[in-house]
Amino acid sequence: MAQNTLGEKASAARSQPYYLDVTHPEANKGAVVGTLSKRLGIPPEQIATIDDMPNDALMFRKSGFSIAMGNSSGEVKAQVSAVTDSNENEGFTKAVRKFVLVEPSRHDQNLQDR
Questions:
Q1: Residues with Cβ within 8 Å of residue 59, at least 6 apart in sequence
Q2: DSSP labels for 1-50?
Q3: What is the domain range of residue 55?
Q4: How far apart are CA 10 and CA 24, in angstroms?
Q5: So what's the pLDDT on residue 3?
Q6: pLDDT in tens, 58-87
Q7: How far from the centroid of its chain's Cα atoms is residue 19's Cα?
Q8: Rounded distance, CA 40 to CA 44, Å?
Q9: Number of structural domains in the chain
Q10: Confidence (pLDDT) at 13
Q11: Handedness of CA 38, 75, 2, 21 (dihedral sign)
Q12: Domain holding 12: CATH number?
């Protein structure tokens, strides 16, 4: 609702149920994916993102592969390419090993196994 009210004047997203992040329209996690893509010469489709909160949705939409932590809400999990284990159970490490540090031919198999 806040984003609809602000339109293109600002970026608004919840980082916690009780926090609303309001920033310049180009100062959000989605814009960071675009900036890194340009600066590093990596197509956005080849960028993987991982996180666990609703304010990560812009980042997830801009990257080629998105991963939600297991402790994420259903709302967050519904927007990603894959879900890993929780923060408490080494989810980040497991996701990097399973989805990032793999040979391209095994990547497709890992997606089918999720």
A1: 28, 29, 30, 32, 33, 49, 51, 66
A2: -HHHHHGGG-EEEEEETTEEEEE-TT-SHHHHHHHHHHHHT--GGG-EEE
A3: 2-113
A4: 5
A5: 74
A6: 999 999 999 999 999 999 999 999 999 999
A7: 18
A8: 10
A9: 1
A10: 78
A11: negative
A12: 3.40.50.1000
